[in-house]
Amino acid sequence: MTRNRLEQLVLIASIIGGVSYIASWPMDLSAPLELAWKGSGLGLLAVYAALRARSLDGWLLTAVMIFGVLGDVLLGVQFIVGAVAFLIGHLVAIGLYLRNRRPVLSRSQRALALLLVPAAVFIAFMLPADRAAAPGVAVYTLGLSLMAATAWTSRFPRLTVGLGALLFLVSDLVIFAKMGPLPDTFLTGLAVWVPYYGGQLLICVGVAGALAKTRILPAKPGRGTMRSMVEGAAPESAVLPPQSGSA
């Protein structure tokens, strides 16, 4: 089996695991089995990211997915520990996106990134009915919204990575709304899981695909190595900071 084929099979298995997890909700499963099913979708995304990793950026993406799996599973064991795992993953993702900043931003792009963080933190702070939980929710959302803002302003495609990060943010805001005015129903469960897994899928596929498209261009005499950029990034004539090889 070729590596390409293996990557495709792992990605398909991840999608099956992520989508089919919804079917487990009405089942009377043991906690370990339910958590394993829940973690299968993102766990296989971590495997997919690792199979495609060829550089530090690729391994940072893998780490983001791994901390996502830990967060998924640990939330069902100890909520705070799971939230910390997710927060660490957000910090790693911020580092990944800052390493791949978009050279030029339009006013609207810059405005969205600047407004997103305070707006998300304020909304999250206001949602929990237990006001003692509000400061912790706000701190977590600060990391999450910074992740989404840096994803949006990175060189990675916005229709996958930027949108995926925003979906992740929406998912967690629904979780916080369930701590307050929103009832815990099947529909609100869908409103959490679908944008969460869908967002992580878009981030993983988008970053991995963008890194794979980066290629080394022949160097001109007397000049350093030039890299082509992925969709939405700088022109191919732009010189990128040295990185650790193509991903």
Description:
- The protein is mostly helical and 247 residues long.
- It has one domain (3-227).
- Helices cover 68% and strands 2% of the residues.
- It has 8 helices and 2 strands, in the order H-H-H-H-H-H-H-H-E-E.
- The chain has helices spanning 3-20, 31-52, 56-75, 79-99, 107-126, 134-152, 158-178, 186-213; strands at 216-217, 226-227.
- The protein has a two-stranded antiparallel ribbon with strand order 1-2.
- The longest helix has 28 residues, at 186-213.
- It is globular and about 50 Å long.
- The model is unreliable at 215-247 (pLDDT under 50).
Summarize the structure.
The protein is 68% helix and 2% strand. It is mostly helical and 247 residues long. It has one domain.
Radius of gyration: 19 Å
User: What percent strand?
Assistant: under 5%
Main sheet: which strands, in order across?
1-2
Order of helices and strands: HHHHHHHHEE
Give me the count of strands.
2
What share of residues is helical? 55-70%
Provide the domain count: 1
What gross morphology would you assign?
A: globular
Q: Which structural class do the helices and strands define?
A: mainly alpha
* Number of contiguous helices: 8
- Report how far the terminal alpha carbons are from each other: 21 Å
Assembly category: single chain
Low-confidence stretches: 215-247
User: Can you give the mean pLDDT?
Assistant: 88
What does the main sheet amount to? 2 strands, antiparallel
